[in-house]
Design goal:
Elements (H helix, E strand, L loop, with lengths): L7 H6 L20 H7 L4 H6 L1 H9 L10 E2 L8 H4 L4 E3 L3 E3 L7 H5 L6 H4 L1 H14 L5 E6 L1 H10 L7 H9 L1 H25 L3 E6 L7 H18 L7 E5 L6 H7 L3 E3 L6 H8 L5 E5 L8 H15 L4 E5 L9 H13 L4
Parallel strand pairs: 1-4, 4-5, 5-6, 6-7, 7-8, 8-9
Antiparallel strand pairs: 2-3
Length: 345
């Protein structure tokens, strides 16, 4: 396919009819693949993210193995925090660490403005390299973390179970919270526009931790800021996927925030989600990543059930979150084949 308008992934994002249901996987490039682990022995994670040639290589790794309908650039949602001044480290076993957490007004005021072209240009350069490699075959997705998810890392100093410090800032220092969200949203719009200018043909915004909030808190503290990001990108004419986990009780609010496609996890059946979102709302999801460890007959049963519930139009098959470490590559490959072979009655 030479014309990007013909890509079934992009057509599904727009709710247009497709010849087959498109499929791609979050974290389809990564540590479940031996080629990635071999590369990881030579370079650190941040080195791979910041070296365009290596990021391109990792992005391309699954494309020769999996029959998928989109590539997603290899990067990390936390990369923009480093130029903002918080620092960023990845420790073995513990995941990301933010050495200088942002927990008061002074710390928020000290955050630096980010010029995405200059300070995160390595992501744009990687996008350009990948586009040269895959152009005419499948489209390329760029991405970023959503405002809440990024702010929670900045405030907590890393991952959190209960997000106590984050929620207390929202409740007790709402002006500080809004200032922080404002700075992060300004950075995100610039960063995502840079990715589109570099050649990203779609975008996904990851709100991995926003499900820790109540619908009331989402509506009051998150929705206005997230909507600003989506609204600021409308002129770019690329489809944007609004991805979140743990939000099955507030999908109506997630839709209000924006995005051409709403992507959600396995905690709600996809047909029930479509009743909430509306029949014409393109959706993406929602297989539990753990299912990929199951015997193939069980996987096929789950995949077919999701496909039947989703229907043939305005739907992109994916997981409810990223591929887990140690997932059998053959099972991921089989799922892509199951999706493409499925016939709607």
């Amino acid at each position: 396919m030479s014309d990007s308008n013909e890509f079934r992934f992009l057509k599904a994002c727009r709710g247009e009819p497709v010849d087959k249901t498109p499929v791609w996987f979050m974290r389809q490039a990564g540590r479940y693949m031996k080629v990635y682990r071999d590369l990881k022995e030579k370079y650190t994670f941040l080195e791979m993210c910041k070296t365009p040639e290596l990021a391109c290589e990792v992005t391309m790794q699954p494309l020769g193995v999996l029959d998928i309908d989109a590539a997603i650039i290899f990067a990390d949602i936390l990369l923009p925090l480093e130029p903002m001044g918080t620092g960023l480290e990845f420790t073995a076993g513990d995941g990301p660490v933010i050495p200088r957490p942002v927990r008061d007004k002074q710390a928020v005021e000290n955050l630096l403005p980010v010029n995405a072209e200059e300070q995160l240009g390595f992501v744009g350069d990687a996008i350009k390299l990948v586009r040269k490699e895959i152009d005419g075959k499948i489209p390329l997705i760029g991405f970023a973390g959503a405002p809440f998810t990024l702010c929670s890392y900045m405030i907590e100093g890393g991952k959190s179970r209960d997000f106590t410090t984050t929620k207390l800032m929202m409740y007790e220092s709402t002006d500080v919270w809004n200032l922080l969200m404002d700075k992060v949203c300004t950075m995100l719009v610039d960063y995502l526009k840079m990715q589109v200018n570099a050649g990203a043909q779609a975008l996904q915004i990851f709100d991995s931790w926003v499900g820790c909030l109540s619908p009331h808190d989402y509506q009051q503290y998150i929705l206005p800021h997230l909507k600003r990001v989506f609204d600021s990108l409308k002129d770019f004419k690329v489809p944007i996927i609004n991805f979140s986990t743990g939000t099955s009780t507030m999908l109506d609010l997630v839709k209000q925030a924006g995005g051409d496609v709403v992507s959600f996890d396995w905690r709600i059946e996809i047909d029930e989600a479509r009743k909430i979102l509306g029949a014409n709302q393109p959706v993406q999801g929602n297989l539990d990543p753990v299912t990929l460890f199951a015997p193939l007959p069980i996987i096929r049963e789950r995949v077919h059930d999701i496909l039947r519930r989703a229907g043939p139009n305005g739907y992109i098959f994916n997981l409810g979150h990223g591929i887990l470490q140690h997932t059998p590559v053959d099972h991921v490959k089989a799922v892509a084949e199951m999706v493409h072979e499925f016939k709607y009655e």
